[in-house]
Structure formats: structure tokens, C-alpha cells
Design a protein that fits this description.
Blueprint (H helix, E strand, L loop, with lengths): L13 E9 L4 E3 L4 H4 L3 H8 L3 E3 L7 H13 L12 E5 L10 H9 L5 E5 L5 H14 L5 E9 H4 L13 E9 L8 E10 L11 E3 L4 E3 L3 H22 L9 E4 L4 H11 L10 H4 L6 H9 L8 E8 L3 E8 L1
Parallel strand pairs: 4-5, 4-6, 11-12
Antiparallel strand pairs: 1-7, 1-8, 2-3, 6-7, 8-13, 9-10, 12-13
Length: about 325
């Protein structure tokens, strides 16, 4: 089945003012899983590319990790006060509280009076969906500055004994301050944002599931997920590039969802480009969900000169896909 994509004719323009991140200090190696689910370190690395992952300890949860990431971003926020934010979007599929959300916790913590506070979830594309929601509020004139926070506590819902997914998960958080207008020369320009629901494909909502009282995170149709992730990670990136009035060749570095390194390698093969053009962290952080691709950008942005063009693309359960183009 071939989907028809709805592409906007007007490119997005927003600006990233500051980025912060947090990964828990506790590291779990592949060797841990031999006694837990019978998988060897070599098997895990060969099938996923993962060698280690950071997991939340007893003092961490979705909210505390998110606050750590926001604190990190505030350190680099030079052009306005956090209290000037008009909308707070929490983007995640692993909430510890579905009522008092990460967005509300952040609003209380930093005293951001009068801001809109909400949570969005589209599995591993949640961060980009959150970015698109902010784009909408900016376009409607309902805000000019935003805080986008994505904190994923996968191991809270994961089942280590599950040989299908127990070894995949890492925990992490990222926070981005975003403005409608450029506020400093160091701001990074978001050239386009693209998302699409893909529930009509393959196993759709049954491909990946998170049922808090029914087994936690499950991926009973891994092959189905793999096939569509390979195809639609590239499709989403192509759509975002078109919206940005760029070709894929114009992108200097590509960041995929860090779900499986074999998926990333397959995307590279489809594009007929070297893996050197792909930035990854799955080797040492595992699958950190919706935080994974924006975390790679956070960890690498300072290494590259002004003008570098990044394409960030994701595929998530449900199914869904999303991508954005950003220029440093």
C-alpha cells in the first residue's frame, strides 16, 4: 500500500534557542541480559548495534529526568527568561503521571505563569509531533516562545525478561527552547517539520504496544516494524527536505531514530551514502524512544560549524513517522 502524503507549500521557520539533555549515570551492559532473558552480548550487538544503555536509578523518574534536561538547557539560554515561555509541550509515550504531566511539573518548577501546558504522544515520533504543535501555536499567534521537553523512562515499563524487547531500552531526556523569531546569531533555524500517521500500514497499532497493566512495552511484530521503519524514515526525511526546499544531498548529517542500528544502515544503503554521514548514539545509550534522535542532535551540535544542515527523521509505533530539517 502506497500512502499519499500531504505536504505544505510553505516551509516552516522557527528557531532553537537552547538545547539541554540528561542521561542517567547508571550503565547496563549487554552481559546483564544473559541471565535475564538468555541473550548473549554478541547476539544483541549484532542484531541491534547496542553495547550498553543508560537506565534510571532509584532517584530518577520521567519527571526528574525532564527537569535535569531543562536545567541543562537553561544554562545556555541567553536571550530570555524561562518565565517568558508561552507554551510548554511534554512529548513522550512513557508518562509517570497522565494527569499531572511533565509539562505541568515544569510549569510549577520554574513558575511559568499563564503558559499553556500539554502533553502529546505519537510513540517515538512524539518529539517531532510536539515541535509541530508548537509550530501551530506560533502560527495562530498564541505564543512566541516555547519549551519542548521529552523524557522517556522506558525501563519503568520495560520487561527485561522479554527476549524480543527487554534488552533494547535506555532512559534519557532532552529539552529544547524554541522561538518564533530569531533572537540571536547562535539560534538554529528549523527549516521544516513533517509528521504523518501510518496506522493503515501493516500491523499498525498492534506492531508496538505499551500497556501499563498488561505487559508493559511489547513489540510482537518486530519484522513488520523493521520493514516500515526502513521505508518511512526515508519517506519522512524526503518530505521534510522538500518542504525546506532542499534535496537530500543538501543535508550534511542525518540523524535517525535510534531504535536499531540495522535500520539506520538500511536507510544509508537506500540513499547510497556512507554511514559517516549518519550520527548515532544507539551503541552506548540503547533505544531511548522519542528522546533518541533529538538527544543525538544535542550531543553533537557543538561539534559542527555554523551553517551545518541536519536532517532528523523518526519512525514510531502506531505507526507514525516524522522529520525536521535544522540549520545551525
Amino acid at each position: 500500500m502506497e500512502l499519499k502524503f500531504n505536504t505544505s507549500s510553505n516551509p516552516t521557520t522557527m528557531y532553537i534557542n537552547s538545547i539541554g539533555s540528561y542521561t542517567p549515570p547508571n550503565i547496563v551492559t549487554n552481559e546483564h541480559f544473559l541471565a535475564v532473558n538468555g541473550l548473549t552480548s554478541e547476539w544483541i550487538e549484532q542484531r541491534t548495534g547496542i553495547e550498553t544503555r543508560h537506565v534510571a536509578g532509584k532517584t530518577d523518574d520521567q519527571h526528574t529526568m525532564g527537569i535535569h534536561a531543562i536545567d541543562d538547557a537553561i544554562k545556555h539560554l541567553k536571550t530570555y527568561d524561562v518565565k517568558d515561555v508561552g507554551i510548554i509541550v511534554a512529548a513522550s509515550y512513557t508518562p509517570i503521571d497522565t494527569v499531572g504531566t511533565m509539562a505541568h511539573v515544569a510549569q510549577q518548577k520554574y513558575g511559568i505563569e499563564g503558559a499553556k501546558a500539554l502533553q502529546v504522544t505519537t510513540a517515538c515520533t512524539s518529539f517531532i509531533t510536539g515541535m509541530e504543535v508548537i509550530e501551530g501555536y506560533f502560527a495562530l499567534g498564541k505564543a512566541t516562545k516555547a519549551l519542548l521537553v521529552c523524557s522517556e523512562h522506558n525501563t519503568y515499563y520495560g520487561n527485561e525478561s522479554d527476549p524480543e524487547t527487554g534488552h533494547l531500552w535506555g532512559d534519557a531526556a532532552v529539552a529544547y527552547f524554541i522561538s518564533k523569531d530569531r533572537l540571536s546569531e547562535s539560534d538554529m533555524e528549523i527549516k521544516s517539520i513533517y509528521t504523518c500517521g501510518l496506522a493503515t500500514l501493516g500491523c499498525g497499532p498492534q506492531g508496538v504496544m505499551l500497556r501499563p497493566r498488561g505487559g508493559g512495552i511489547m513489540m510482537p511484530h518486530g519484522r513488520d516494524v523493521f520493514v516500515y521503519a526502513c521505508k518511512y524514515s526515508l519517506k519522512a526525511l524526503s518530505e521534510a527536505a522538500t518542504e525546506a526546499e532542499m534535496s537530500l544531498e543538501d543535508i550534511d548529517y542525518i540523524i535517525c531514530h535510534q531504535g536499531n542500528k540495522r535500520i539506520i544502515m538500511h536507510v544509508a544503503k537506500q540513499l547510497k551514502i556512507n554511514m559517516d554521514k549518519f550520527l548515532t548514539n544507539i551503541e552506548h545509550y540503547g533505544n531511548t524512544g522519542a528522546a533518541s534522535a533529538p538527544l543525538v542532535l544535542a550531543q553533537n551540535i557543538d561539534k559542527y560549524p555554523k551553517g551545518t544542515r541536519f536532517g532528523v527523521t523518526t519512525f514510531g509505533g502506531g505507526y507514525s513517522c516524522g522529520a525536521f530539517i535544522v540549520v545551525k
